[in-house]
Amino acid sequence: MLEIKNLHVKLEEEDKIILKGVDLTIEAGTVHAIMGPNGSGKSTLSYVLSGRDGYEVTEGSATLEGAELLEMEPEERAAAGLFLAFQYPVEIPGVGNMTFLRTAVNAQRTSRGQDELSAGEFLKIVRQKAAALKIDADMLKRPVNVGFSGGEKKRNEILQMAMLEPKMCILDETDSGLDVDAMRLVAEGVNALRDAGRSFLVITHYQRLLDHIKPDVVHIMADGRILKSGGPELALEVEQNGYEAILAEHGLSGVLA
Amino acid sequence: MSTAAKPTPVEARLATLDLPRGGAFAPARAEALARLGAMGLPGRRDEYWRWTDPASLNAPAAIPAKPLEINDEAPVFDTVDRVKLVFVDGVFDAAASDAPELAGVEISRLAEAADLHWAAGLYGALETAGQKPVARPFAALNTAAATDGVLIRVTGRAARPINLIYVHNSEVSDPILHHVIKLEEGAELTLLETGPAGARFNKVMEVDVAKAARFHHIRVQGRDHERRAITHIFARVGEAALFKSFTLTANGMLTRNECVIDIVGNDAMAHVAGAALGDGATGAFLHDDTVFVTHGAERGESRQVFKKVLKHGAVGTFQGKILVKPGAQKTDGYQISQSLLLDDDSQFLAKPELEIYADDVKCSHGSTTGAIDETALFYLRSRGVPMEEAVALMVISFVADALGEIEDEGLRDEIQSRLEAWLARHRG
Description:
The complex is a heterodimer. Chain A is an alpha/beta fold. Chain A has helices at residues 42-50, 74-80, 97-111, 119-132, 137-141, 150-164, 180-193, 208-212, 233-241, 244-249, and strands spanning 2-11, 17-26, 31-35, 55-64, 67-68, 82-85, 92-96, 143-144, 168-172, 199-204, 217-222, 225-230. In chain A, the strands form three sheets. Chain A has a six-stranded mixed sheet with strand order 6-9-10-3-11-12, with helices on both faces. In chain A, strand 1 and strand 2 form a beta hairpin. Chain B has one domain (20-373). Helices cover 19% and strands 37% of the residues of chain B. The mean pLDDT of chain B is 95. Classes of the chains: A alpha/beta, B alpha/beta. The interface between A and B is medium-sized, with 30 and 26 residues.
């Protein structure tokens, strides 16, 4: 599904190198988690994959089902099936959540050569998917993310994901700012979308989210590289012992200072 | 023997006009003419005209402007049940207009007003009051020279809006219209104004809103026309009355909209808002909103909400003032003027002012100028929304507060659809 090879990235405006050779292969239908200390490059990886400005790829590649992602505009990546659930979803006053969702769904359908959904069809689908995420009619009518609580914003991200039905979903610290109940709701939303044709990359600081969204593979990232990969037990190990031991194995003890 | 002196700008301007004579408004006109003579026409050196060169408005004749033929869009408010009053290049077109009949509303024409008319004491009165502390020569010129206009007295709750439709057909038309609107106690009216009116348009509207009356004004100043316009609204707002005015301006070479509001009764509310869309690629775009709100009574609420979207060398100007007179306690005044620059060529100039002589008031103002928020743009694009559509959504988001000042949802939707159509026409 997603194949990242030797990805090197620096900030466009400064000489700061953030990713120093990331290799990652995510098979269709699998859930991968990336954990790592602050500043390890996890969020940068998600932004570079989805096409945010401000980064310069100096080496390497990233392909989605064989198509080179890094050449595409953000909207083309979305149409190709990539989705990023933002750590900080953006507020857009004056644009109704429903208008936003419908514009996005229909833009993607158009770019794939499908017919746009009619207002009626769209409404039916959105209501059903919103209900599963306990998103009420009021939240759909309000401007995008304006006045939403932290939990509501994250549920809204998952609703967008459910509506857009991407192939490759990246969740950037979706658990940040969520209480236990909200996290369960979000995780249930994600789990409902799991299927053989869809993959997930879950970026998180804590093992807790991975109790709810069970990963197939866990990666530890630090200093712009993936240091270690393993099964779900790797997340438990980090939870108990911290990152220090793993970093030390790679001569990176100073990173957490 | 004397050599003829070079005429003053006022004389040169008046020489091209056929001033109306006689009738109920003759004294007000004569008085306005005298005032205009004393104040003269403005120049670039006048502080109040520093950012908007009045030369093309001062000139004896209008700069010719091509009328725009529109066949891709229905006329604005076409689906609204309204009373249409049509002016073609400033000349009333009875055949194209509806019968001026509306329960609770008395409508007559300035050009046909009887010698004894209810508007005689009002015509020019609010305009005169609005000349202090800042002179507004084009308004005085208008009072002296207006050839026509509508005089509307509202005694009840008007069931339908009145729509003044201004058609621009002649390349050299230079209409001067003057409307007087009086809402008696408890009355309510929605007034719509649409169209470019002429190559150069000078319009004054005096609105007297009596106790507990409600006046809604929604204006669309044509679209992409080459026109120039200088317009004034002078409003007097009485006790517990409501005055609301919204203007959508889509291009036009030069537009200066002045709005002078005098809150004279306690617990009154006055909101004035505007959204201006300017694409300099159409030739030029200069849009100037000049607003002066005076609080002369207690517990008044005023809002000034102005948004400008500018690109390709368009220039937007905002001069807004809130004056709180002594004794106007518990005044709640707010003013925001913002511009969204879609490229590096455009410019926004703002002069917000507060002048407060009461000690228990809440007044604030804000002014910002900036580009589209990159994070929000990325957010939209990451959902698959193409760049241009994402920009359009961000523009809609930007002007939303101004559109929010339109209370009627149907009328607001109509304005929003015009805005979206403009965005679709002016991509890139």
